[in-house]
Write a structure and sequence with these properties.
heterodimer; A: 193 residues; alpha/beta; 9 strands; B: alpha/beta; five-stranded parallel β-sheet; 48% helix; elongated
């Protein structure tokens, strides 16, 4: 019942998408649906900053998602920003339907280091959990090892686990149970007038 | 992380405003947004924001600095962070001068903004803790609505606890406004008579005949205008306490009548023949020096001794200045609640001014002053100018006038007596203050027949 839509925005390597797809299915117990990829998000590019407006890409991703998707996770290779901040690793609709994740700053190459695939997978898993956690309604967690703790730099991401702490996990499970119950009801009965 | 903090983001650019708000919400804060200075002011009036992020560059009419000034007027405790795209020293200085706590140049690093918020909230948490501790402390210093941390007042509280269940008469002495009736009520409510009536009578307010009828009641036709039988205050206080305020002002005839009631707990109504028996505790109060009045033969000594079974002397406010901050904060809380004005605190300068004031009218005068300041205050915090009327109205403080009409031994007697009273009867402390040794003070106490 229900699925997580995986939407790729711009060029992203297949093996990374493959990894994230499997990771999400194992973690949340939902099917994932690979949506048709979007081209490079030039519409959101800020030439002065040479970065991409995260809010605009997320809005576009939500337009592309199917109506019955439980959540939409958009993944992009471009570097994201919001006007106030110099960069963001991703963005989500708090207690909403969509999340966006950028791989740009998760790569070792961004810091002038040789590529490290397993490290990229691990970082992508943590940040996917983090952004999806926001769309499930979770806010930043004070437990440093929890995927929901706030990371302002790559070292903080590496210090986290690719799982929620027991408290955050309980909240996610509760949210997913509600989603499953709602999805199981014929035509969302409880929404009828 | 505390999740209760409210944040306001003010920016005319929607994308900037909303993305910032979303980012802060992910961090667990409750965030509102405003698209203009006017909207920010309206929102600040409604909600007590802990932090306001204000963009410097907003449309003319109300730019960031103007918004900052207006928001600070409404919420002086809110931390204001000015955001700008261009770092210029001039604007930074202007913002800080107008009371901005921080200055951020956008785009900034996410770590920078997180640390900034954490730093502000750490201070806010300490302030909040301070308020809670202050509240706890004021509870510690409270006894039946009487607030004090003065040791002599605490001795009085202890005495009240000890005598609350007794029937003995109590004489409360103290200057006007020191809270004699509050002490009387505390005695009444702390004891087993607490559920009975507490009947206060101001003896100074009524003429002799009226007071007699007021206290003892009258029979129908007892005097012109006595169209029906009326119970007096003594009868109304049956099973409880009668509080006779300004007892030092009653006439010799009433002094005699009262003496009889105190001796026998019986009396006659005015014009009556039936003897009434009552079970009433008598608490009397006066601002006069009754001992002096006895010496001057203005007050019956036998009544004085009947009344003075338990004596409580309330120190004037100027002798317990340490209570002023506690009392002021208590009055701010109660008066602002009653008047509906959102005044929450007082500046250090204003508190110093109140601590230095003479307060001849004691706690009552202090309460009136705080009430007057709150009524006229236009901000949320009372400052020195709100108490200007004190310096305009009050005469210069004269602590003590050298007596020029008394024999030297009388002056000595009064000084030793007052010092002993001030020190709660502690001879060693009194001797220390007077600069004499203990044997000398004992000798003077004996010579002047001073009661401790």
């Amino acid at each position: 019942v229900g699925a997580i839509d995986l939407l790729i925005v711009g060029p992203v390597e297949d093996d990374v998408v493959e990894f994230l797809d499997g990771f999400l299915r194992r973690t949340f117990g939902y099917e994932t649906r690979r949506m048709a990829s979007l081209p490079n998000p030039d519409f959101a590019r800020d030439p002065r900053r040479a970065q991409y407006d995260s809010t605009r890409i997320l809005r576009e991703a939500l337009n592309q998602a199917s109506v019955d998707a439980i959540q939409v996770l958009a993944v992009t290779g471009v570097d994201l920003f919001i006007p106030m901040l110099s960069f963001v690793y991703g963005q989500a609709q708090l207690k909403g339907r969509g999340a966006l994740l950028s791989l740009a700053r998760l790569r070792q190459e961004f810091y002038g280091l040789p590529p490290d695939r397993p490290l990229l997978y691990s970082r992508a898993a943590k940040e996917a959990l983090h952004e999806l956690g926001h769309s499930f309604g979770l806010v930043h967690c004070p437990v440093p090892s929890c995927a929901m703790s706030l990371s302002s730099n790559i070292l903080q991401i590496d210090a986290k686990n690719s799982e929620y702490c027991p408290g955050c996990n309980a909240l996610v499970v509760e949210t997913l149970t509600t989603v499953r119950v709602r999805a199981a009801l014929p035509q969302h009965e409880e929404d009828r007038p | 992380m505390t999740r209760r903090w409210e944040i306001l983001v003010v920016d005319d650019e929607e994308v900037m405003r909303e993305s910032m708000a979303a980012w802060l919400r992910e961090d667990g804060y409750r965030v509102d947004t405003a698209a203009s200075g006017q909207e920010a002011i309206a929102k600040a009036r409604e909600k007590n924001y802990t932090i306001c992020f204000i963009d410097l560059k907003m449309p003319p009419g109300m730019d960031g600095i103007e918004t900052l000034v207006e928001v600070r007027k409404i919420r002086p405790e809110a931390a204001i962070i000015i955001i700008t795209a261009y770092a210029t020293v001039d604007t930074a200085i202007t913002a800080m001068k107008e009371g901005a706590q921080e200055y951020l140049v956008k785009p900034c690093n996410p770590a920078e903004i997180s640390l900034l918020i954490q730093r502000i909230l750490k201070v806010k948490n300490l302030q909040r803790e301070n308020v809670l501790l202050r509240k706890k402390l004021s509870k510690k210093y409270e006894f039946q609505d009487i607030i004090s941390k003065n040791p002599r007042m605490h001795q009085i509280f202890e005495l009240i606890r000890q005598i609350a269940n007794l029937r003995s008469t109590v004489l409360i002495q103290g200057e006007s406004g020191t809270g004699k009736e509050m002490i009387a009520r505390a005695i009444h409510h702390s004891g087993d008579r607490g559920s009975g009536p507490f009947v206060p009578v101001s003896c100074a307010a009524l003429a002799e005949t009226l007071l007699e009828s007021e206290l003892f009641g009258h029979e129908r036709g007892a005097f012109t205008g006595a169209v029906s039988r009326k119970k007096g205050k003594f009868e109304l206080a049956e099973g409880g306490t009668i509080f006779l305020d300004e007892i030092g002002d009653i006439s010799p005839k009433l002094q005699l009548d009262l003496l009889r009631v105190l001796q026998d707990h019986r009396f006659f109504r005015v014009g009556g023949t039936e003897e009434i028996h009552v079970d009433v505790r008598v608490i009397a109060a006066t601002k006069r020096d009754l001992q002096e009045a006895v010496r001057a033969e203005q007050f019956r000594d036998d009544l004085y001794y009947r009344l003075n079974v338990i004596n409580i002397h309330i120190p004037p406010l100027r002798e317990r200045r340490e209570d002023i901050p506690l009392l002021v904060r208590h009055f701010i809380e109660t008066v602002s609640l009653e008047s509906g004005k959102e005044v929450s605190d007082i500046t250090e300068g204003a508190l110093r001014l109140l601590m230095d004031h003479g307060w001849p009218g004691n706690v009552r005068e202090l309460e009136n002053a705080v009430e007057r300041a709150i009524v006229t205050c236009k901000k949320r915090i009372l400052s020195e100018e709100d108490f200007d009327f004190l310096t305009l109205e009050s005469p210069p403080r004269t602590s003590w006038k050298v007596p020029t009409h008394l024999p030297l031994h009388e002056v000595e007697r009064q000084v030793i007596e007052a010092t002993l009273r001030e020190k709660g009867g502690n001879v060693t402390e009194a001797a220390e203050v007077l600069g004499i040794d203990r044997s000398t003070i004992y000798d003077r106490i004996k010579r002047h027949d001073i009661q401790r």
